[in-house]
């Protein structure tokens, strides 16, 4: 084959080099355009920044507020303030998280309701000095999916306007507490005495009737004593997607209705420390996703199906202090995930199965019932 002339080779190399330079310049231009685009995002909207600053001023000055609000300065981008989250393209405020900051205020300032693009609002673990929640305002937060006002020392009625938040996935109005146990005296609990407020809810149906998307409901220590059986039928009818039902210390006094069996996705049931009566719901054994079942300190009776102790996913079953409830312990499978098995002070009976040694994850075991026989392996 004839070799290419050298001048032609040189021309070809120069052409290839020029093409590479064009490609590099094009990439640099694209990168510059992208950088200019990202830096050109709009900052926090002025009206939302003003609303946040008004909310800040509603809290008493203290070391806690200094720490929580040290980045909240007028004239700066509120999307960069601590506890604030904004939409990536519009810079609308979508998250306000001041949870467990130790803040104090005489009331919840209406400025928070001007943040109508909020999806997450967490003011839990602060002190609102026994004030009532505003009855008007929550209905403006139509995009809200997570609302946490737990352990915030509010009192009085739960506003019905919270029930207008149709996008809510998680609602927490609970009062947090810690358990400890004294031998021979049962369970005691410790609460923060600086936040003693208790909320009242006279009609759970009004609260949840429009909350079809709700997956977590935390209402511990909310007074539901006037509800009768309505609490149960309301949840079954209006919250079919519920995963977490936490309502201990709510002064519930009815039986657990059979319609609750429609909560097919339920994972956590905590109804302890109420006055619930009636038979143990047999359908609890059919909840395939159930992880926690807390029914301690009630007046539930009847027979507990042994199959529930063989549940593949169950981690906690606590039936303590239901004196009229009865049952036997089954043969425990080797793959059990049980960590807490508590059936003391009940009417359980029968031999303690040697297969209890299969519970490799066990942390707490309560078998203090007179009807048990045999020895622990």
Largest sheet: 12 strands, mixed
Task: Write down the CATH class.
Answer: Alpha Beta
Q: Which residues sit in consecutive blocks of at least 5 with pLDDT less than 50?
A: 1-6, 27-40, 190-196
CATH architecture assignment? Alpha-Beta Horseshoe
Q: Any idea how many domains?
A: 1
Shape: elongated
- Can you identify the CATH superfamily? Ribonuclease Inhibitor
Number of beta strands: 20
Q: First CA to last CA: what distance?
A: 91 Å
Residue-averaged pLDDT: 88
CATH T-level fold name: Leucine-rich repeat, LRR (right-handed beta-alpha superhelix)
Which structural class do you get from the secondary structure elements? alpha/beta
Helix content: 10-25%
The strand line-up of the biggest sheet is 1-2-3-4-6-10-11-12-13-15-17-19
Structure description:
The protein has 377 residues and is α/β, with parallel strands linked by helices. The protein has one domain (90-373): Leucine-rich repeat, LRR (right-handed beta-alpha superhelix). It is built from five helices and 20 strands. It has helices at residues 6-39, 46-57, 63-68, 204-208, 230-238, and strands at 84-86, 93-97, 120-122, 146-148, 156-157, 170-172, 178-182, 186-190, 199-200, 216-218, 244-246, 268-270, 292-294, 302-303, 316-318, 325-326, 340-342, 349-351, 364-366, 371-373. The strands form five sheets. It has a twelve-stranded mixed beta sheet with strand order 1-2-3-4-6-10-11-12-13-15-17-19, with no helix packed on it. The radius of gyration is 29 Å and the shape is elongated. Mean pLDDT is 88; it is low at 1-6, 27-40 and 190-196.
């Amino acid at each position: 084959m004839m070799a290419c002339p050298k001048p032609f080779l040189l021309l070809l190399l120069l052409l290839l080099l020029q093409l590479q330079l064009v490609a590099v310049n094009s990439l640099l231009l694209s990168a510059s355009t992208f950088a200019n685009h990202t830096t050109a995002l709009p900052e926090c909207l002025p009206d939302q920044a003003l609303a946040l600053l008004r909310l800040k001023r509603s809290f008493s000055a203290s070391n806690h507020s200094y720490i929580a609000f040290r980045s909240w300065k007028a004239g700066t981008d509120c999307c960069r303030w601590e506890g604030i989250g904004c939409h990536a393209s519009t810079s609308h405020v979508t998250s306000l998280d001041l949870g467990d900051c130790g803040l104090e205020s005489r009331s919840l300032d209406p400025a928070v309701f001007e943040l109508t693009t909020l999806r997450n609002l967490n003011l839990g673990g602060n002190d609102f000095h026994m004030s009532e929640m505003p009855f008007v305002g929550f209905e403006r937060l139509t995009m809200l999916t997570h609302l946490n006002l737990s352990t915030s020392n509010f009192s009085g009625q739960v506003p019905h306007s919270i029930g207008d938040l149709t996008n809510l996935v998680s609602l927490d109005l609970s009062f947090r507490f810690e358990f400890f146990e004294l031998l021979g005296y049962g369970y005691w609990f410790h609460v923060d005495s600086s936040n003693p407020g208790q909320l009242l809810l006279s009609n759970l149906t009004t609260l949840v009737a429009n909350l079809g998307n709700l997956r977590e409901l935390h209402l511990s220590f909310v007074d539901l004593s006037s509800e009768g059986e309505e609490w149960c039928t309301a949840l079954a009818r209006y919250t079919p997607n519920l995963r977490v039902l936490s309502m201990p210390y709510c002064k519930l006094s009815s039986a657990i209705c059979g319609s609750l069996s429609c909560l097919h996705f339920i994972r956590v049931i905590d109804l302890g420390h109420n006055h619930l009566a009636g038979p143990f719901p047999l359908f609890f054994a059919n909840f395939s996703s159930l992880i926690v079942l807390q029914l301690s300190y009630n007046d539930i009776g009847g027979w507990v199906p042994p199959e529930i102790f063989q549940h593949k996913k169950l981690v906690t079953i606590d039936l303590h202090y239901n004196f009229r409830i009865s049952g036997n312990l089954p043969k425990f499978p080797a793959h059990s995930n049980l960590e807490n098995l508590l059936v003391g002070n009940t009417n359980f009976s029968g031999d303690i199965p040697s297969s209890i040694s299969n519970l490799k994850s066990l942390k707490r075991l309560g078998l203090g019932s007179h009807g048990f026989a045999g020895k622990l392996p």
